[in-house]
Amino acid sequence: MSPRGGSPMGRVVSGPSATQRERRDAGPATTKGRQRRTEILAAARRVFEERGFVETRVADIVAAAQVAQGTFYTYFDSKDAVFAEVAQSVIDDMLAGLHAPRRPGAGPRQRVRDGLQRFIDAFRPNAVIIGLIEQVGTFTPEMRRLRLALRESFVAMSARGIVRMQTEGHADPDVDPLMTAEVLGAMVDQTCYVWFSLGKEFDATEVLDSLSLVWSRAIGLPEDGETPAGEPGDAAT
């Protein structure tokens, strides 16, 4: 049985009219329309975070956004559609947060730590929606693809970082960058899920210290300022 009836992702009381579908497909034509759409998305996110996906109804989103149900259908054709946009927005924001210029003068272990800190900082405020994406992904291929896209982006960035450190002579050249990034990425992802989504309490500094230590040792990094075995010069240069 589908949750709350209707489609696999939810139930709506009534669908959009033909005119509403035309307006929705064309997108907001005015600044006010774009603002109203943004407000509905923000309200939808709040409701999903408070009630969860299954228990949220279009009526709840409409009430939180303080708009008529017809206004909702001008911009979205269902609860499924508005959740998909909320989820995509969260993933986009997280991916943007993972990109940052390298700190000048940072050694390889500090660069690892900085990257892990960015992931934690990006995951923390979005943990509820990430958990819902995983939940909805159990019966919706689109959400599975979206969740996997976030993970694959982090893995790809990490693999490039490992290759760069190997090229610089810091990391173990025998380490497989992609598979190592997959395994270490799973460690970081699961730690953040247990911490922020399941609510297990951790000391933030201890978590970051431990993740950084395991990651650095796994790819064979020396301590910052030390010379890698068999390599001349300063490892942090």
UniProtKB/TrEMBL annotation:
Give the InterPro entries listed for this entry. Answer: Homeodomain-like_sf (IPR009057), HTH-type_TetR-like_transc_reg (IPR050109), HTH_TetR (IPR001647), Tet_transcr_reg_TetR-rel_C_sf (IPR036271)
Judging by the UniProt lineage, the source's domain of life is: Bacteria
Ordered alphabetically, the record's keywords are: DNA-binding, Transcription, Transcription regulation
Looking at the record, which segments are called Disordered?
1-36
Chaperone: is it a keyword of this entry? no
Extract the DNA-binding region annotation as residue ranges.
57-76
In the UniProt record, does the keyword DNA-binding occur?
yes
Task: From the UniProt record, give one GO term of the biological process aspect.
Answer: negative regulation of DNA-templated transcription
Domain HTH tetR-type span(s) in chain numbering: 34-94
GO molecular-function annotation terms? DNA-binding transcription factor activity; transcription cis-regulatory region binding
Q: Which PANTHER family match?
A: HTH-TYPE TRANSCRIPTIONAL REGULATOR BETI, HTH-TYPE TRANSCRIPTIONAL REGULATOR RUTR
Protein name from the UniProt record: TetR/AcrR family transcriptional regulator
| Organism annotation | Actinomadura craniellae
